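Our preliminary data section would be incomplete without showing what the modeling component actually yields. Below, a chain of 303 amino acids is followed by its predicted structure, encoded as tokens that our downstream tools consume directly.
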Amino acid sequence: MLEVPKIKGLSFTFDYFNLNQNKVIENIGAAAAIDRDEIILDIAMQAERAKGTPINQIDLGSGTDSYRGSSKVVRKPVSQADRDAFAAYNATAAGQALPRAPVGEIIHVVDDYLNLSGRDIQGYEFGVQYKTPKTRFGTFTFNGDATHYVKRESKADEVSPILDELGRNGRTSWRANASVSWRQGPVSAGWFASYFGSFVDTSAATTEQIYRVLGRPEYIQVFNDNGVTRYLLRVDPQINHNAWVSYRFDRNANPWLKGVTVRGGINNVFDTDPALVDEQYGYQPGTFNVRGRQFTMEVSKRF
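Predicted structure:
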């Protein structure tokens, strides 16, 4: 923390973090497991194409013990119908979308807890605080801090590739919040705003052809997903506002009110809806207040 000598009450903070976690226990859900399976298959397919293997000759081990997708997804062996379907898709999408090597139909997805081989998280945080001197207008306090993630990678097991998770599915690069509070005698009030940055929804994908036909809309982001160019839903940044006001009865108040503080608040002041994503409930958990505008009232007493 750095305090500014000539400006009393002003201070700055800066923190750098680099976390390496091993054997992280996590449940990612069936939809995320299928999405991860797709990415791992795409990476394996691109590696084969780099070797010069024709797309219709790439064997991803579907239905065998050497399956090159996610270990949590079990597929049938590739049938002739599968080969025909993938060949038709590749012919139609030639030059417009990522070609696909044939794999079999999904039999089941193991939706259990993963004991991840490792996860690396890196970033920094910085903040500022300023408390004004006491004046006849009261005292103001300003706070602001932000977190910037520059790395978030995970490896599901020893044989899986390292996957970049940053900027995807709620794992934003930026988070921040700011607040201002005021106090004058027994009355105080404040305003708090939180910011959750943009990210892409990897389960809401389209093709380059559709992206162009739609006129390259901003809500579709051309995204490098672990070396694979994908056209994904861009989830806009979200800002939530809360406000509160309180009154504290002083020592000269009625004995029943002495030491009592009454506080009222409004959460999600502007009744903002969370951004729409391709999830079970239509929003990304952990990113926004999904309850709409809420009014709160609290009464406490200090003895």
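The chain has three helices and 17 strands. The helical segments are 30-50, 80-92, 208-213. Preliminary results of this kind motivate Aim 1 of the renewal.
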